[in-house]
Amino acid sequence: MPKPAHRSFAAAVGRDGAGRLADAIARHPREFVGIALAAAATLTIVVNALFLQHGPHPAPLFATRPYVHAAPAAAVKPQHAQSAANTAAQSAVQLISDIQRELARRGFYDGAVDGVWGAKTDTAARDFAQAADLKINPEPSEALLRAIAASKIKDQAAHNDPIAELLAPSKRVLAIQRALADFGYGQIKPTGVFDSETKKAIEKFERAHQMPMTGRISEPLVRELAAMTGRPLE
Questions:
Q1: Looking at the whole model, is its pTM more than 0.90?
Q2: Is the model's pLDDT at 194 over the cut of 80?
């Protein structure tokens, strides 16, 4: 059965084209190899640009996928820092509250358990440190809390005897004596009792700060001492 004419024609053209291509390769082998290498390089570049790039291609024609920028670590870091600061603040409030509670149990503190290191708490801590003969600085710390919790000392002035209360040392005088002694205005032993040494130290302080010489505890004196020490005095 004879083949269709159009199939015979296509086969003839195919054989003729292949023959011409083979003849061209035989006559120009170097040029053929160069063309083949250039075509392979072009194909490699196109495939790399379209399918193998993780980021955006510099040419808009090849921007086949959106590039998602990773969130920098610095944007998350402030949240962790803020959280750490809040935790530290809560720990400090809890520590001061525990110190106030222990001081109150031993009669040295009669204020609110609010976690604020104010004048009353500072005075109570110093009174306890003096009564217990502590060698640590009476400031909010775990060491101070442990010392108070382990101590059996009670404030001897914390009772309901009205006569003893009248004779008890004044916490305000005690705070002033400590401030004057800490800043070198006299060799004062903080007792809470106003004596001649305290009067001389006050006069020395008034002279140094160009205040009227009174030798007495006055409101201007308390304000100046509080400003110098950086904490309120009772």
A1: no
A2: yes
